[in-house]
Design goal:
It is a single chain. This protein has 197 residues and is mostly helical. The protein has a single domain, classed as Tetracycline Repressor, domain 2 (Orthogonal Bundle). The protein is 78% helix and 0% strand. It contains nine helices and no strands. α2 crosses α3 and α4 runs antiparallel to α5.
Amino acid sequence: MTQTDRKIAQILDAALPVFVRFGFRKTSMADIARAAGISRASLYLSFNSKEELFRAGSMRAHTRALDEVGAALAGQGNAFDRMEMAIAVFQRELIAPFGGSSDAEELFAANMALAADITLDARTRLLTMLTQTLNAAAEATEIDLEPLQASPHQLANIMMAAMDGIKHAQWNGSSLDDDTKLFMRLLRVAVTPRSGQ
């Protein structure tokens, strides 16, 4: 890692808690520079604006999360254990940091306004990875999709929709982790092959 890369990483690491604390609109470049321990002038040498910095942070977070998701799905264990781990990673890296903010909705909206292409590409990649995992599990008769009359792609789509719904429900007092685990248990029961039938 070059000195420039280390400086960028330092800035992005410092920026996330500032955005979580103040929200996107109220966060200033001065706040981020102070948190990163650098001058505003030095910050502007790396990023021209708060928007550019936020977008770079989104790219970094999505790339990092998808690398970890891929590793979880390629790991050991049955398909559902691996998918549950992958979804937990995705949520821990991309949803939970902002979910704890009183400005969570504003931060998610800012992300869609400034980095929709990054977010949508990451969601497409996650959907593809989940579909491939479900397809392999169905081919290995680890799961049975016949009772649901659903394809691996349809089921992966439902999983993604549930993740979105659960993300928003946590602001009403629900737990992101607990609700996701409950959904995955329901799904596991629905597609587990029934012996003797």
